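Example for reference:
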Amino acid sequence: MSKTILIVDDDPHIREVIRFALEKAGFATAEAADGVQALEAAVRVSPTLIILDVGMPEMDGLEVCRSLRKTSQVPILFLSARDDEIDRVVGLEIGGDDYVTKPFSPRELVARVQAILKRGGSAFVPPEAPIQRRYGRLSLDEEAYTVCWNESPVELTATEFELLRVFLQQPRRVFTREELMDRAYCNITVSDRTIDSHIRHIRTKFTRMGGQEIIVTMHGVGYRLGTCSE
C-alpha cells in the first residue's frame, strides 16, 4: 500500500503543488484546508506523515500539532511563510519533525518527507474511544468520569476514581500497594498508609450504597476487587 501524506494548508494552490509533487513520487495524499479539518482528516485517513502549515487562521498549525501529540507520534513537517528562528524552535519543541519555509522547492519538500520516513515514525493512530467498564453491579465511565453502584452514582475523589479504574482493568487480579501507587499516582511516591486510607474511603462510600467488600484485602500481598454482586 502507498503511504498517505495529509496536506494541511489554507491556500488551495499550495495544496495542489504539494499534492502533484507527492503523487509523482508515489505517495497517496489527502487534504485539509484548516486546523479543524486537519484533526478530522487525521482520524479518517490515518496518514503516514502530515505536512502542516503554521499560519492558518482560527486554529494554526502549532495548535493542531499540540492536539495531535496528545494521542499520536505521527511525523509532522511544518510549513511557514516566516523564517524566524523562534517559530522553528517552537515547532520542533512541541513535536514537529522538520520545518520548511515558503516559498519552497517541491523537490526539496518531497526529499524532506522521504528523509523523515526513512528515520522511522508511527502512522497516526486514532485515539481510543472512552471506555465504559462494568463488573457486576459496579460500572465506570471514563468519558463522563463517573462511577455507579447498581446504577446509582458514587461520589469519588480523582485518586479514588483512578484506583477503581486500575482494579476494573483486571478485576480478578491482586495488586500490591506498589503497583497501585505506580498506576494511580503516575510514579509519584506515596506511603503505604496513603493507599490504605484511599481504599478505606472507597469501601466506606460503597458500603453506604449497599456494596459490601467492594475491595478485598489479601493479607501479605495487597488488594483485589470484590465480587461486586451484592
User: Anything to note?
Assistant: Residues 192-208 form the longest helix (17 residues).
